[in-house]
Amino acid sequence: MRTIGTIAEREFKALVTAPLGYIVMMFFLFVSSVFFVAPLNQNVANIRYLIGNVTIWLVFLLPALTMRLLAEEKKTGTIELLMTSPVTETQVVLGKYLGVLAYYGVMLFSTMQFVLVLGWVRRSGANPFFPTYTGLLASAVTLVLLTLAALNESRPLGIAAGVAKVVTLVCVVFSLGQMGEWGPAVTGYLGLWLMGAVFLAIGLLASGLTRNQIIAWVSTAAILLLMTALIAWLTGNLPSTQPVLESNPNFGSYLSFGGAWVIYVLGQVLQALSLQTYLENFAQGVLDIRDIVLYLSLIAASLFFAVRGLATSRWA
Amino acid sequence: MVEVDQLCKRYGDTLAIDSVTFQAREGEILAFLGKNAAGKTTTMRIMTGFMPPTSGTVRIGGADIRENSVQARRQIGYLPETAPLYDEMTVQSYLTFCARIREVPNREVLGRVERVMDSVNIIQRRNWIIGKLSKGLRRRVALAQALVHNPRVLILDEPTEGLDPEQIIEIRALIRNLRGDHTVILSTHILTEAQALADRIVIIDGGRIVATDTTQNLTHAVQRVQRLRVEADAPLAEVRQQLKSITGVQLVERIDTERSRFVVESARDMDLRSRVAESIVSAGWPLLELERLEPTLEDVFLSITGRRAVAAEDVV
Ligand SMILES: Nc1ncnc2c1ncn2[C@@H]1O[C@H](COP(=O)(O)OP(=O)(O)OP(=O)(O)O)[C@@H](O)[C@H]1O
Ligand SMILES: [Mg+2]
Predict the structure, then answer these.
(1) Could you report the per-residue pLDDT of A210-229, keeping only the tens digit for each?
(2) What does DSSP say about strands B200-205 and B208-214: parallel, antiparallel, or unpaired?
(3) Which of A30, A42, A201, B108 would give a disulfide with A302, using CB separation of 3.0 to 4.6 Å?
(4) Are residues B272 and B198 in the same domain?
(5) Ligand 1 pocket, B37 CB below 6 A?
(6) B152–chain A Cβ distance below 8 A for any pair
């Protein structure tokens, strides 16, 4: 347990202190700001729009966080350090996964400022100092303290960052209250975090299969693109209702009936694989246990194969 | 303490090591001596559980490296051929990380890191980013990493490679101090290094063990002849004639095409330096160089097997 924590902490710090981590975070904040601001003119600002649109960006951004996790260790030889220490493959994989997942958490929660602003915009005449201004300040303080803590290796600063984060979250909860419809925002964020968690697990698996970071990034992004956008597009163009047999069937109509069924089943299967579909449910405030189970099993499967991959390199 | 039994490793068609068998006793320093591509690194990687053998077994303190891998690895400190360093970390945080994943209890971590930074003399650079250190300093941090958890067995792959002469002396003294409390297995391609450090020497050539003996016995076996390098400022043929006429000289070999440089061989226990010097000076020539040559790995192979070493590359 302590070993997993140690590895996770190192991985998290590496992301906080490395340029790559910053670039990904900045880009994500920029993109989500665009999607937040764009509909504001039409006075239809909502979180649902934001969540629906950042997914495609996560497809490209999150693999950049995971690409180095194992590929770089293999390339530079630091993998020899981990593999010859009394550490199991499972601990290595879980540690790295939790580290990058935590970083993604920070990244995602930093878009919660939008909730703070929304709460204030929605309720005219609301006091802007609490929760909006307080929350924004606390959120900024969190990021600054976190960076300082990582750079100075300071535990007190890290704890202070944690406190600031809690303050931010409290403000966010009050803002959600002001917003009125807090269900979709909460489930939407949960869904986005879970989906990111799936992306990261797949990215970690890909990173373990190569020593080339670019290959890890490209292959992960390609798989994720297939699982989200492409499948969503395909299912959009496939019939979603069960085919019916003509009242007076001849051989030809049996044939086309069969064909229609095949296409229908294919559409259903693709839909079941499409992460985007599930995310839409989340964004509408529907928290279906089956969706969560699907996400969790995708994560478990990816991590399992990542562990197998490492173990094979040791004991093949 | 360390038992290596019938180890074989095959890379595709090439047999990198073949039936490697040796033991290291508790508290001794064992040198693993061989030329480039002899199979030193391959053997060490298998011993530390980084790589599986094609066949054979390794036991560390009774624990099999495959069956009981974590227990075996717990007892090892390993310095790989390429320093396994995370370039973005500081020296101190890197060593802290290493101590933690090697299961050093929390309250002892700080003290151990402090002590090991002191012993490899890197304490002034504790807050440096590893990526900015010079090659020799990186090597020292890598050595510190192997020592930080005070392991019973140390496996060091060419520990003095890439260090300047002063540092080589320092690191050798450090390794010598480990004798008794630790079992040390180090690899090297320099005979004098093995002689300077080890209680026993295992010689590997072309993937096979060709000799295992105490340093004393091996040194004795190697010193069949005493060799001097001589250079005088005079015509070639005349110098050769002069050297040959000295009593006790068995062989004079020219080693330079332009200048009058020779290697002079005599019996093992005969020091001809004063006679050679006298003879050259009395002939009225300036003596430019006179040095006793240490036996090389090449001599070892000659004396043990009566043949030149298998691998073609030259040894320093
Ligand atoms: N990953 C690999 N794939 C194929 N062949 C390899 C691999 N690693 C090593 N070899 C081969 O195995 C042999 C032994 O290599 P090894 O690295 O063990 O030698 P070494 O004694 O450590 O040499 P050096 O002094 O140069 O470090 C060499 O012929 C090498 O080419
Ligand atoms: Mg080597």
Answers:
(1) 889 899 999 999 988 887 77
(2) antiparallel
(3) A201
(4) no
(5) yes
(6) no
